[in-house]
Amino acid sequence: MISKTSIRLTIAAVAIAGAGVAAGLVLASSPSDGAEPRADDTPFEVPAAPTTASPQSSGPVEQEPPSSVPAASVPPSSEPVESDAEPESVPAPQSGDGARLDGAWSTDGARLVDGSGNAVQIRGVNWFGFETSNGVPHGLWSRNLEEMLDQIADLGFNTIRVPFSAAIIDATQPVSGLNEAENPDLAGLTSLDVLDRFIEASGERGLAVILDRHTLAPDNRHNLWYDDEYGPERLVTDWEFLAERYRNVPNVVGADLYNEPYDEACWGCGDPAVDWHAAAQEAGDALHAIEPDWLVFVEGVEEADGASCDGPDSSSGCTWWGGNLSAADDIPIELAVPNKVVYSPHEYATSVFRQRWFDDADFPANMPAIWDEFWGDLERSDAAPVMVGEFGTTLDAEVDAVWLEALLVYMDEIGAGFTFWTFNPNSGDTGGILEDDWTTVDTEKVSFLEPYLLGPFPPVSD
């Protein structure tokens, strides 16, 4: 077994040297199991990799708690339960360069800056649950919201990417899935009410919030930004609604328009039914008509032309869902409000799927050229900032530790931001920052991330 120390002594030089590898190589198609997030409490089993190159580059599978949790009790025994362990944290540095949550972040070439021109670097984490049937961040069945936010800040993160479903905009019923004894102030609230509290409490701790339209119906990942129930117009009207609700809230820094378009979703193909580039531009302009200060985070697609990523004859341009921004060099997102676009690909390790490039003889030196091709050149060319919105792994496989260190070195070298997937331990094929007791920190994962964390911004009340 290669030690982590050995990995870290060699990866930086190997990964950066690999950036000189010529692009234009034939890339593996990106298989995934295509599984939807689970809505039951049965153990998750990682499916075997298909024998054919059926590229389904899914993101991680989110394991779900029961649909309801007794108001003043812990979850059933099959779910994470409260632990006597104290929340673990490390001293958090201060986000540098004087950057503030001033509600006026923008782009300057490939840099992010606040309203005073101070450089901003996003070093965050995802915390999911608003996109599930619970309608609140997972873990609130065991712990207090503000205590968990304190832990995120103490670990050194400065941003939370918050997945939500389109359904929470329509929801009028009080949420389930939280322990009211631990969170009495959240009892009887709707998902949006809880989101209000979440955002306010995050700002008090110097944590930026990126809203991520992650699913349509709860627990129902869809390849396009609409379906029969939630029509294409909802991409615009949902963001108009949220822009109005959170306009002038200084720590809501932007909108991740839709999570992981894939399959026939294309970039600039001209077909309005599947052209993600066109849909993203329309939604970005619509929300800016209400809140012009927000950043607009735009993910990629699976294959730029919407070509098939299924089977042995799939396109060589296939990668992770939402991870292909290769066409954005020539067909950029152009909004009426300038200097607001941030590109946000996703990247994963073998615990999600063993892509072909993981078995390349040159791994990990082959990876910078692949990342350059799909999204890194946007940052390198000073076209626009890149913020990798999801990346994660269980670290069960040795190759995943090599991949994680190589990716962190690469992102730091080109200046890309990130939000790690995820704070939750119940992401089926990546796990999270927390262990299954929802309190103890996975110190191995944090040890990889810690050198790159900057600590929270000054609280918005300061």
Protein architecture, described:
By secondary structure, this protein is an alpha/beta fold. It has a single domain (4-35, 52-63, 86-452), classed as TIM Barrel, CATH 3.20.20.80. The chain is 23% helix and 10% strand. It contains eight helices and eleven strands. The strands form two sheets. Strands 9-8-7-6-5-4-11-10 form an eight-stranded parallel sheet, with helices on one face. A hairpin with a 2-residue loop joins strand 1 and strand 2. The longest helix is centred in the C-terminal third of the chain and has 17 residues, at 398-414. It is globular. The termini are far apart.
Compact description:
By secondary structure, the protein is an alpha/beta fold. Helix content is 23%, strand content 10%.
What topology, given as strand order, has the largest sheet?
Answer: 9-8-7-6-5-4-11-10
Gross morphology: globular
Strand content: 5-15%
CATH architecture: Alpha-Beta Barrel
Report the radius of gyration as a whole number of Å. Answer: 20 Å
Helix content: 10-25%
Cα end-to-end separation: 48 Å
